[in-house]
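Progress note, sequence design subtask.
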């Protein structure tokens, strides 16, 4: 792949998905685009990029973005955010949303392990919300990941990552060499396609937003834009959870740090007034 083609694809990925690729990532680009070229019946990556340039075929562009999106996820990933949910978030929202409902958004949810983890927590601990109903919306840019998430079908490797064996036996049914999550839990989560680069999200307002380990692929200006759009999609008093290695320092005034709760942020009152 020549430098002009790398620059073209890099700009396309940044514009469409916020993904920033530096020059040392050419190997990554080539390793992921080669299978796509073969799938499309094209002899090389160069031919694939030529077709994308010439045709501007949205189907092909979407597939290119899809294969370049990192879909790393697993059940109860990092554990800490789920402890925050049980110990610091639900007790507050159970009082604040009495007579209403609690809305949770899992952004960049990949194949669904995160929202299904939340669903399992709720199913096992109904008293956490004090009878207040909960709605879980999970979004991702990838049609492929969303389809898998809706099916709720996971490999042996996937259910072994973070999922306690008791929950596996209680909530999953083995189907050949895969495991399907129960219909009851599938009904608790609504999956929708959404690109965090969209100028508006149009999902309504949320009380809790999980946005973990996705902004690490964005540059600082894009992170700021996305964080402020997320803030604009939240109810006053709402909470946002980010990845263990992530920080909002110097990027936005829309959230306040929650002391002694790593990765947990609260919507700032000044942001709630603007939203």
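Output:
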């Amino acid at each position: 792949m020549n430098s002009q083609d790398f620059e073209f694809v890099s700009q396309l990925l940044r514009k469409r998905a916020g993904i920033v690729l530096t020059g040392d990532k050419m190997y990554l680009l080539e390793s992921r685009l080669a299978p796509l070229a073969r799938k499309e019946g094209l002899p090389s990556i160069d031919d694939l990029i030529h077709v994308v340039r010439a045709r501007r075929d949205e189907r092909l562009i979407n597939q290119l973005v899809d294969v370049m999106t990192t879909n790393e996820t697993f059940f109860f990933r990092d554990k800490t955010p789920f402890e925050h949910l049980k110990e610091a978030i639900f007790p507050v929202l159970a009082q604040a949303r009495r007579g209403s409902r609690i809305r949770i958004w899992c952004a960049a949810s990949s194949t669904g392990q995160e929202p299904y983890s939340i669903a399992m927590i709720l199913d096992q601990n109904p008293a956490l919300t004090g009878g207040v109903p909960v709605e879980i919306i999970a979004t991702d840019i990838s049609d492929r990941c969303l389809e898998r998430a809706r099916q709720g079908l996971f490999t042996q490797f996937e259910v072994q990552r973070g999922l306690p064996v008791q929950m596996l036996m209680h909530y999953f049914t083995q189907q050949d060499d895969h495991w399907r999550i129960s219909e009851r839990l599938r009904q608790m989560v609504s999956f929708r396609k959404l690109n965090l680069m969209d100028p508006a999200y149009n999902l309504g307002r949320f009380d809790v937003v999980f946005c973990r380990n996705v902004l690490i692929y964005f540059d600082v200006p894009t992170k700021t834009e996305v964080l402020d759009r997320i803030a604009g999609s939240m109810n006053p008093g709402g909470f946002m959870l980010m990845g263990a290695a992530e920080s909002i320092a110097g990027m936005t005034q829309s959230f306040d740090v929650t002391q002694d709760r790593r990765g947990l942020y609260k919507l700032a009152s000044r942001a709630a007034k603007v939203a």
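The chain has a mean pLDDT of 91. Work on this subtask will continue into the next period as scheduled.
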